[in-house]
């Protein structure tokens, strides 16, 4: 087992986590046209909801806890939009106001998480991970499940967008919200569903990030947010398939580079790749429809 193949396996796991997170952020941006800078804290809260269900109170199986935490985060996303972000977006036409609100929301959420769970490193109650040889790769059972969850979610999002009435409405609203509204699409309902999906995906991403890293801290999601932004921008802002492609490029490049350079600099590689790509393709790998 060479160092390259070990890092390649880690890259697949990182790509899986990153793809789930990037799709959730891209879905929300595609519908609302503003970035939720508290998304990393959404991930952290989802990770701690999973921890409470798995280890602190209910002692549920980690995968059951993850699913329930995702549903809780979906509801939380809808609640935040209804009570906070939605009213600001309707009152102020400029997205700058909403961006400032999401910055403030991020600070509030981070401090609430610190207040409830503290700064101590916490661990999930995970089943013993047996290592499996998959070709030249060495992956644990938990890593394989994380990758399977990511693939299942990617396929589900693709199927929803391409084959269902909901997905077609979401794509129409993403292309032109005003035209979608005049065409009879219930934009409020679509926005609510989008926030639920984005919140649920953030919860899944936060939990699998903790599983992949072996621990969770309140600031983990916030730190990972920069990598998510790199993947989303690289793929093309607002493009779901661009987010998938960006996650592959960023996830693999960061982990494989760690086999040849100091691992402390692996995140810098993501931004080097981002800059070089945008010099060639300013709109990203897969530009959102309507961009120039």
Strand order of the largest sheet: 1-2
Mean pLDDT: 88
* Helicity level: over 70%
Please summarize the sheet with the most strands. Answer: 2 strands, antiparallel
- Which stretches are low in confidence, meaning pLDDT under 50 for 5 or more residues running? none
The percent range for strand residues is: under 5%
Intertermini distance: 46 Å
What is the name of the CATH topology? Answer: ABC transporter involved in vitamin B12 uptake, BtuC
CATH class equals: Mainly Alpha
Strand tally: 2
**Rough outline:** globular
Alpha-beta classification: mainly alpha
How many structural domains in the coordinates? 1
CATH architecture grouping: Orthogonal Bundle
Order of helices and strands: HHHHEEHHHHHHH
Tally of contiguous helical segments: 11
Q: C-alpha Rg, in Å?
A: 19 Å
Description of the structure:
Helix content is 74%, strand content 3%. Strand 1 and strand 2 form a beta hairpin. It has a two-stranded antiparallel ribbon with strand order 1-2. The chain is globular, with a radius of gyration of 19 Å. The model has no long low-confidence stretch (mean pLDDT 88). It has 292 residues and is an all-alpha fold.
Summed up:
The protein has helices spanning 3-32, 39-56, 62-91, 95-117, 141-163, 165-175, 177-182, 187-213, 220-235, 240-257, 266-280, and strands at residues 131-134, 137-140. With 292 residues, the protein is mainly alpha-helical.
